[in-house]
Each structure stands twice: as structure tokens, then as C-alpha cells.
Write a structure and sequence with these properties.
Structural class: mainly beta
Number of strands: 11
Shape: globular
Number of helices: 0
Helix content: under 10%
Distance between the termini: 40 Å
Order of helices and strands: EEEEEEEEEEE
Length: 123
């Protein structure tokens, strides 16, 4: 069982930065692939970034070069650094955990979800 708690969301102007954190519980946290999903109003949840248990990362084309995800398994924490934010980055951001090696785009393949944190980027 893994519990996930996100923090770090908020309101920022376009061009600004935010850093999201996701604190996990459980001794097996380091074995999970972790994903960051975003859900904008009226849209489906989409994967924006992911990191495997050994630190391999991948990103949606829309955030490549602007977002960076990392993890610190000693702290059971995953991070999402978001730079050069755009209004289209607005949404609720969810941290997720998957009990497999690979990061995948299908949200149904993830076992645990955080409560979400709101990110709003004003123009």
C-alpha cells in the first residue's frame, strides 16, 4: 500500500516556475514507477512526466525542455520542476505510482493516486 500527498501548486504568471512535490509512504516506494498526470477543465487526464524506479524519465511533447521530474528514494519523494509555465499548463496535477518498471500513458495502469494539487498559470 502506498499513500501519496502532493504539494507545491498555486497561482503563477506565465513564464514563472513552480515545483511540485509528492511524498509517498511505504517501504516499497522505491520500486514503483511514478507518473505526473494533469487534468485541465473539460479535458481528459494526461501524462506529462514520468520516472522509473531507477530514474529514467520521459515527458509529453508539450512540456519537454520545460518540466523536469526527479526522485529521492531516501525521502520517498518525487518532484516535478515546472519552468517557463504557460496558461495551457493550468490544471490539477496528480502524482501516481505504478507497481511496474515502465511509465505508461494510460491512467488506468496506475495503482495509487494522490489527491491532486491545483496549478493555475495566468496570462
Amino acid at each position: 500500500q502506498v499513500q501519496l500527498v502532493e504539494s507545491g501548486g498555486g497561482l503563477v504568471q506565465a513564464g514563472g516556475s513552480l515545483r511540485l512535490s509528492c511524498a509517498g509512504s511505504g517501504r516499497t516506494f522505491s520500486t514503483y514507477a511514478m507518473g505526473w498526470f494533469r487534468q485541465a477543465p473539460g479535458k481528459e487526464r494526461e501524462l506529462v512526466a514520468g520516472i522509473t524506479n531507477i530514474g529514467s524519465t520521459n515527458y509529453a511533447d508539450s512540456v519537454k525542455g520545460r518540466f523536469t521530474t526527479s526522485r529521492d528514494n531516501t525521502k520517498n519523494t518525487v518532484y516535478l520542476q515546472m519552468n517557463s509555465l504557460k496558461p495551457e499548463d493550468t490544471g490539477v496535477y496528480y502524482c501516481t505510482a505504478r507497481g511496474r518498471y515502465a511509465v505508461v500513458a494510460d491512467p488506468k495502469q496506475y495503482d495509487y493516486w494522490g489527491q491532486g494539487t491545483q496549478v493555475t498559470v495566468s496570462s
